[in-house]
């Protein structure tokens, strides 16, 4: 009998040991993704949700990404970087441009005549972040840094020459855009996007700098008449930089196999997905703007674009000094961005 009990206990122990690793391997994780955008916004519908579903599928259901739009977990959009750094949330999708000066090396991509197209900028950013921003991103685990297709001028009045900007009140979405408008003689207003519609209706502003992608959400096809780009080969004024960041400790806490799932859905592995999404939604938005026969679409000629470039040169100088003052080599960084954009514009 004693021999039977010992054998039974031994068997139970072995069974327990066999179960232990299995339960660890089957660990399930819920990740809270926080963003300022509403659930109907293109980046949520066409990028964040598919990304979350892809991660869930490739982890066999063991990673569940719960998306909290419109700051449902509290705070303000400019606090998102701090929230993910401090572990208040697990993942954020946000614009570092909301917190000017925190990541000036990313803001440089908002300068005119750098952004060429979505593909060139997104791929350039993958190289650029590795080379220039390891220290900046040290407090985070980077999932992706990317860009949209580029912004243009959407106005009530025509822009045929650089002098037309003089005195024009335009909404800008970043301090870099504001500096550009000031250099052109315009009056920039940095306000949240939902405030743009009533301001256009009241005539407080005469237009905005926007990509086509977001324009239907604020009825630019109805509220403005003129859509103006610069002369090729870099027709868009600039782009905005977005970050998908994860709390570093949360990533480090994952078992190796789940880390691999996250890695497979990060950086260069999902850059093509971001490129495809933002090019697609940009075309969708442009079609809506073209749906109104009253709307006019044009580009500044080569001569006026050259004058534009000369007018905004002080913004480049200002940015180079800003980077120099932070301990970086501003001219070298600018040269690297130009070289990377050219490299991937093929």
Keywords:
D-Maltodextrin-Binding Protein, domain 2; 346 residues; six-stranded mixed beta sheet; single chain; alpha/beta; five-stranded mixed beta sheet; globular
Characterization of the model:
This protein has 346 residues and is an alpha/beta fold. It has 2 domains: 28-149 and 240-281, Bacterial extracellular solute-binding protein, family 7 (D-Maltodextrin-Binding Protein, domain 2), CATH 3.40.190.170; 152-238 and 292-344, Bacterial extracellular solute-binding protein, family 7 (D-Maltodextrin-Binding Protein, domain 2, 3-Layer(aba) Sandwich), CATH 3.40.190.170. The protein has 14 helices and 11 strands. The chain has helices at residues 2-25, 42-58, 80-86, 104-107, 118-132, 175-184, 196-202, 220-223, 248-253, 256-264, 271-290, 302-311, 313-325, 330-344; strands spanning 29-35, 63-68, 91-94, 140-147, 152-155, 169-171, 187-189, 207-210, 226-229, 241-247, 296-299. The strands form 2 sheets. The chain has a 6-stranded mixed β-sheet, with helices on one face. Strand 1, helix 2 (42-58) and strand 2 (63-68) form a beta-alpha-beta unit. Helix 5 (118-132) runs antiparallel to helix 11. The model is unreliable at 1-25 (pLDDT under 50).
């Amino acid at each position: 009998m004693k021999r039977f009990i010992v054998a039974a206990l031994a068997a139970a122990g072995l069974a327990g040991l066999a179960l232990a690793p299995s339960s660890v391997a089957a660990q399930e994780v819920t990740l809270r993704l926080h963003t300022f955008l509403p659930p109907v916004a293109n980046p949520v519908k066409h990028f964040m949700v598919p990304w979350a579903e892809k991660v869930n599928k490739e982890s066999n259901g063991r990673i569940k990404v719960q998306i909290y739009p419109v700051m449902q977990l509290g705070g303000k959009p400019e606090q998102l970087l701090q929230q993910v750094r401090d572990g208040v949330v697990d993942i954020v999708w946000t614009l570092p441009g909301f917190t000017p000066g925190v990541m000036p090396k990313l803001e440089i991509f908002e300068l005119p005549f750098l952004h060429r197209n979505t593909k060139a900028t997104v791929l350039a950013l993958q190289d650029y972040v590795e080379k220039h921003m390891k220290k900046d991103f040290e407090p985070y685990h980077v999932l992706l840094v990317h860009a949209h297709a580029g912004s243009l001028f959407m106005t009530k009045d025509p822009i045929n020459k650089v002098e037309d900007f003089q005195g024009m009140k335009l909404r800008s979405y970043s301090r870099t855009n504001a500096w550009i408008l000031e250099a052109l003689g315009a009056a920039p207003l940095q306000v949240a996007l939902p405030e743009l519609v009533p301001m256009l209706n009241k005539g407080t502003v005469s237009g905005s700098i926007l990509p086509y992608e977001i324009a239907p959400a604020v009825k630019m096809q109805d509220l403005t008449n003129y859509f103006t780009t610069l002369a090729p080969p870099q027709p868009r004024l600039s782009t905005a930089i977005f970050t998908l960041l994860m709390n570093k400790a949360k990533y480090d806490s994952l078992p190796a196999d789940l880390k691999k799932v996250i890695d497979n859905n990060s950086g260069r592995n999902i850059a093509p997905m971001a490129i495809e999404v933002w090019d697609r939604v940009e075309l969708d938005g442009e079609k809506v703007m073209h749906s109104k026969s009253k709307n006019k679409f044009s580009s500044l000629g080569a001569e006026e674009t050259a004058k534009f470039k000369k007018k905004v040169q002080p913004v480049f100088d200002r940015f180079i000094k800003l980077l120099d003052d932070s301990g970086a080599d501003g001219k070298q960084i600018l040269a690297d961005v130009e070289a990377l954009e050219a490299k991937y514009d093929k």
